[in-house]
Amino acid sequence: MKDYIIVGAGLSGTCLAYRLEKSGRSFVVFDDGSQEASKVAGGFMNPVILKRFTLAWKADEHLEAAYAFYSDMERHLEKQFLSPLEVYRRFSSVEEQNNWFAAADKPRLAPFLDTKLVPQVNDHVPGRFSFGRVLKTSRIDPRYLLDSYAEHLEEKGWFKNDSFEYDELQVSASGVSYKGIDAKNVIFCEGFGLQKNPFFNYLPLRGNKGEYIIIKAPKLDLEVGVKSSIFIFPAGGDHYAVGATYSNTDKTPEPTTEAREELVEKLKDLLDVEFEVVDQVAGLRPSTIDRRPLVGRHPEHEHLYTCNGFGSRGILIAPSISKELVDFVETGKSLDPETDISRFTKKWFKKSQGFAFPGS
Ligand SMILES: Cc1cc2nc3c(=O)[nH]c(=O)nc-3n(C[C@H](O)[C@H](O)[C@H](O)COP(=O)(O)OP(=O)(O)OC[C@H]3O[C@@H](n4cnc5c(N)ncnc54)[C@H](O)[C@@H]3O)c2cc1C
């Protein structure tokens, strides 16, 4: 009898599995590679929304937890996937510069916005106005992290490179059974793949497609990340990643010509150096209607859980949110009402079951 079956080894499933491993729980993880959001993510741990200069949801708390969590994972796996990355915002007007200073006056943003602006960050990134530095930023290499942990689990025999077939799951009052594996609980972490999950697909997961291009620019020599209408950061050697796009309408997994053209056009506005597009990646962010995660227990099946809805901030929030769910299952500690899926039980679950509301 295992303690858990985890479905999905993106950031959500990986962070959960690592927490459970550290607390001595037994589990098996299934992943079929059908979603790519975590692997193609930029990997930034940036607490500030750089469009509006506001703090992302609870970002100060999440940042501290994420840094400690990934550092601990690095030590455990003896791999390095976390590195500091300086990030600058290029201003396009005096008004934006003023907004930066106004934001830097706010107590929760002050630790993250440098008020000493710099006139230039690189010879080939021209700017009519200054650049503002976001402090305390770092980056993880998500693909390397996920592959390293999957390899570690494979060595222990705790990883199955396989699709989880929902109709093979048997749920009883005491636990679950799946193709000969008995477990106390299942945690579903399929990202946008949750849409195919008959137990949880009542949840309002929207999905938002994001794409990056990888360029080669031998003369650029940029060592920091720069955000204007797009973001560019070093990706090793003379390669750089440029993105990301946001689309609420296209739910296909493949890279598109439209996104490549959009990014190339914006990049021409940012750089005055030659570049060549050498690769392109795409993924579906598991975004939700209220921009909060989807965490908790199924309304009817007490051994089924989900940990999803990380939207565009999975790197930053997965360590804290996985802890919240593990504490909830293991110790009964209440979930944050903002993340608890019970906020959708009445309207979304009951409606999906054909429940007729009085007066409706
Ligand atoms: C282009 C792009 C850039 C981004 N950049 C950043 C960033 O810089 N910083 C940041 O914080 N966030 C970023 N994000 C957001 C972040 O990637 C997501 O929030 C996060 O990856 C979601 O993780 P997840 O584990 O919930 O989902 P996913 O990454 O989608 O993982 C789900 C996993 O479940 C598996 N799966 C699904 N169904 C099944 C099944 N039936 N059986 C077995 N396995 C299954 C899939 O193969 C997949 O591995 C970015 C996203 C995109 C698309």
Can you characterise this structure?
The longest helix is centred in the first third of the chain and has 19 residues, at 59-77. The chain has two domains: 2-40 and 143-205 and 289-352, FAD/NAD(P)-binding domain; 87-134 and 208-284, D-Amino Acid Oxidase, subunit A, domain 2 (D-Amino Acid Oxidase, Chain A, domain 2, 2-Layer Sandwich), CATH 3.30.9.10. It has helices spanning 11-22, 37-40, 59-77, 94-104, 142-156, 257-270, 314-331, 345-352, and strands spanning 2-7, 27-30, 44-45, 48-49, 54-55, 82-84, 87-90, 131-134, 138-140, 159-160, 169-171, 176-178, 181-188, 208-216, 225-227, 231-234, 239-243, 276-285, 294-297, 304-308. Helix 1 (11-22) crosses helix 7 (314-331) and helix 3 crosses helix 7. By secondary structure, the protein is an alpha+beta fold. The strands form four sheets. Strands 1, 2, 10, 11, 12, 13, 19 and 20 form an eight-stranded mixed β-sheet that branches. A seven-stranded mixed β-sheet has the order 8-7-15-16-17-14-18. The chain binds flavin-adenine dinucleotide (FAD). Residues 7-13, 30-35, 37-38, 40-44, 163-164, 189-193, 210-212, 243-244, 283, 285-286, 308, 310-316 line the site of flavin-adenine dinucleotide.
